[in-house]
Write a structure and sequence with these properties.
alpha/beta, eight-stranded mixed β-sheet, elongated
């Protein structure tokens, strides 16, 4: 691996390429264009399926014939392929990479040491985003590879800031991050569905129940982020003595609600750890 110091990438005058043109890549590219960080003509990808080509072309992104051309045209390259094929893709791209390239991986469960070995390239940033990237509300965590600079990290943070909020963390925490924010949206969708079902069981029309459940979760999350109070205090603020809320909380506690969510995060984190070993 080259250990020479790579030239810094200009903050607003670089080309961005996506290896893999799936929904996550599309969400990232759309957010970057919408935010004005890069114009669409500076972003490219490759795909053979008409529907994926059309999805990117619909907001001005160039779609070329093959990944080789994407690498040649790009300064920053985002690997956004399935974990099962990333090794083959990395080995294919290896001869094309140079010191000018900053590589970014959003491939779930694949560690930097493996990515760096397969590509022969250590100027890497690994990112764990999640699916709310599609609506600009992602929770993304980044960690730097062996030769990535702080400026590289700032650039990647800026790019992923276009689709939500960004944190930095050591890579050893990524399995736990996967269990919480990577898998977490699915837990919340289950909760929304269950709240709506409860509303229907209590007599509400389905559309009203689902709308109220979704907005309630959104409002509660916004309170937790914006108000500056601990979630326990926010819960207490809603809970009157002998009132309706404490009756509901009592049922949740009897069912082990908090323990169930904790166990879900831990189980998903362990599964991520198992997969990364393979």
């Amino acid at each position: 691996m080259a250990n020479n110091v790579a030239p810094p990438i200009p903050s607003d005058n670089f080309n961005l390429g996506f290896i893999g043109a799936g929904k996550m890549a599309e969400s990232i590219a759309r957010g970057i264009v919408k935010s004005g960080i890069l114009p669409a003509y500076r972003i490219g990808t490759a795909h053979k399926r008409v529907e994926r080509r059309s999805a990117f072309q619909s907001f001005g992104v160039s779609v070329v014939d093959n990944n080789h051309q994407v690498v040649e045209d790009s300064d920053v390259i985002v690997l956004s392929v399935k974990p099962q094929i990333v090794k083959g893709v990395a080995l294919e791209l290896r001869p094309l990479l140079s010191e000018k390239h900053l590589l970014v991986s959003v491939v779930a469960g694949v560690k930097l040491k493996d990515l760096q070995e397969w590509t022969g390239h250590s100027r890497f940033v690994r990112v764990m985003p999640n699916t709310p990237a599609a609506v600009g509300q992602a929770a993304s965590v980044i960690t730097l590879g062996a030769s990535a600079t702080e400026m590289d990290g700032e650039l990647v943070s800026r790019l992923f800031g276009a689709i939500g909020k960004v944190w930095k963390a050591d890579e050893k925490l990524f399995d736990a991050i996967t269990g919480l924010s990577g898998s977490g949206p699915a837990y919340i969708y289950l909760a929304i569905e269950a709240l709506a079902d409860g509303g229907v069981a209590a007599g509400l029309p389905r559309d009203l129940a689902l709308g109220l459940a979704s907005q309630t979760v959104l409002g509660a999350a916004s309170m937790a982020i914006d108000v500056g109070k601990h979630p326990g205090q926010l819960k207490d603020d809603v809970t009157s003595p002998a009132g309706t809320t404490i009756a509901g909380i009592h049922e949740l506690e009897k069912a082990g609600f908090r323990g169930i969510l904790m166990n879900a995060v831990v189980a998903a984190a362990q599964r991520s750890k198992d997969l990364s070993k393979n």
